[in-house]
Amino acid sequence: MTSSHLSGRVVIVTGAGRGIGRESALLMAAEGASVVVNDMGTALDGDGADASVAQSVVDEIAAHGGKAIASSADISKTDSGAQLVAAALDAFGRLDAIVNNAGIMRGAPFCEMDADTWDLVLRVNLSGAFHLSRAAAPYFVQQRSGAFVHLTSTAALIGSMNQANYAASKNGVAALSRSLAIELEAHGVRSNCVSPLAFSRMTTGATGRSEEDPVVVKQREAEGAAAVAPLVAYLASDASRDINGQIIGVRGKEVHLYSQPRPVRTLHESDGWTVDKMVQKLAPSWRSSLTPVERTRDVFTWDV
Predict the structure, then answer these.
(1) Is 234 a residue of the active site?
(2) Is 280 domain-assigned?
(3) What is d(CA 9, CA 6) in angstroms, rounded to the nearest whole number?
(4) Distance CA 228, CA 250 (A)
(5) What is the mean pLDDT of residues 292-302?
(6) Domain of 31: which CATH number?
(7) Residue 275 lies in a domain
(8) Would residue 294 count as lying in a domain?
(9) For residue 183, is it within any domain?
(10) Is the pTM value of this prediction over 0.85?
(11) What is the pLDDT of residue 45?
(12) Residue 201 belongs to what domain range?
């Protein structure tokens, strides 16, 4: 392998056995990083486990002359973050970047969603990112360098049907990333989000496209993951040192910088507000600035 932008660096990638995580791990290894490949090898909904999924990525990295180890730690567990950080330090002697990619999806109409379905998705997608980030942050602060790359979703940033738990978890990831960026910037540590808009194992499960030709589905998933991986690798590298606290989307050959919540209109009432005054003034004044109730496909209407 040719060392390049991540030469000598060590990175942990969760959910690295398939899809975006796999492509990111492979690319970062190709760019010179040593990689902790974390994946339980579960199905999209979190069921089952297969340690060979992570090991196959390690084997592929090794076959190309790279360095990697496999981990099947369950990131939804409190001690998983410490296990992964310890594994990186034991195997490679340092740690430079975290890619919080692992996630599951269990969609349901909100009126039919039970508490267990809600809790499981939040535990894996949001608490999993917390556990690993919490374990790595003190190490990054001590060495005064480090990068967090978190995978969020347009389901959270824009909206989606029948995915309230997934959207809430991924919006939480974006808030976690921003908080880390603010708190740790003074210590030389960065935190950013990647929001893929690509045909992936997640979108296949969410849209029912699993009924399409499996060969075509697999090819499109690979293409989508390959489009996202360069941004993940870039944000994990020192080359992106000037980027912190941002959300960057990927859609085919496009990348786009997301806006983040800020006031867009202000309305002042000198004598204070009553319900009657709000009825009279709020909607008429702000109607043209209200964000429509849209989904991703309503916002991204052009082909790439």
Answers:
(1) no
(2) no
(3) 5
(4) 6
(5) 90
(6) 3.40.50.720
(7) no
(8) no
(9) yes
(10) yes
(11) 61
(12) 10-257
CB 289 within 8 A of CB 265: yes
For the chain, the domain total comes to: 1
**Residue length of the chain:** 304
Q: Which of 139, 166, 234, 258 is catalytic?
A: 166
Question: Max CA-CA distance within the chain?
Answer: 72
Q: Is the pLDDT of residue 218 over 80?
A: no
Closest CA to 58 of 80, 76, 75, 34: 34
Contact 248, 257 (CB under 8 A): yes
Are 285 and 277 spatial neighbours (Cβ–Cβ below 8 Å)? no
Give 190's strand partners: 147
